[in-house]
Amino acid sequence: MTTWLGRVRPVKAATLSALAVVLIGSAQVAFVTPAFAQDTMAEARIRKMEAEIRALQRQVFPGGDGKFFTPEIGSGQITTATPNAPASTPVTDLLTRMETLETQLQRLTAQVEQTANRVALIEARLGPAPTDAAPAITVPTPAPVAAVATPAPTPAAVVTPTPKPTPAATPVATRPAASTAAASGPASAQRVAAVRAIQKPATNDTGEDEYSYGFRLWEAKFYPEAQQQLKMYVDRYPRHAKISYARNLLGRAYLDDGKPRDAATWFLQNFQSDKTGARASDSLLLLAESMRQLKDTSRACIALAEFAETYASEAAGRLKSQYDVTRNGVKCTK
């Protein structure tokens, strides 16, 4: 009996130890299985995100296929080092890969925004290109100048012709049509050539140059061209040193062109704008002459009386001869 029992006990001990090993192994298998399942699921999600990013790279940079942003984690680096690594390494690996994906997304977003901004800038530059053709159509409207010659004093309709800073070209192109006297065919061509022969000054004072060019046109008796040039000067340089000279000369250009009504409008405007201006006295005396030509004796006499009272020194000095001629041509009661 003792020998049999002695044999039985070692067998039971061996059986129990084998059973314990089996139970422990099964417990380890049961513990590893869910962890491995979680790793594979996370790995599948990461691979899916990487594939989407590569697809986005191909969409933003066609033909590049990862040329601009190379992945910071290779595909063969994922499943090799997990068996003997501690439990924290898969988590840190996933975090680093997530950070890499986020940085790549940020780079792609920034690149897309930069491209959109460049396209917007190019469209903004190319957009307002065909807008310079309109002024060329509106410049040739000298017909109202001839129509405004005789009716009521409306200088606003006369002031409208033309803003462009190239007066040397535009007056030459438009004036032959405005001069209606005997400008047919060859005569108009000769007039254009004669106007072009008058040089425009070019100094550091552009306002002075514009006025001097108008004076030269008036001096050469190109009165319609001088009118347009001087009106442009008055519109652009209302505070220039020669503004009183320009308004007075503009009235003289109309008066010499046989348009005393338009001339009277500019003479009166120059006198009322600044009675102490350099040519305010001239304008008041020429206003009386314009009224005389219009056979408006009462207004001519009023202008002469105002001139003699306001500019007594001019009436006895620089403008004495002109004042005497104008006063002798009008029969005033006083």
From TrEMBL:
Keyword Hydrolase in record: no
SUPFAM superfamilies: TPR-like (SSF48452)
Superkingdom of origin organism: Bacteria
InterPro entries assigned to the protein according to its UniProt record, in alphabetical order: TPR-like_helical_dom_sf
Coiled-coil ranges per UniProt: 91-125
Record flagged with keyword Chloroplast: no
Signal peptide, first to last residue: 1-37
Keywords, sorted A to Z: Coiled coil, Signal
Protein name: TolA-binding protein
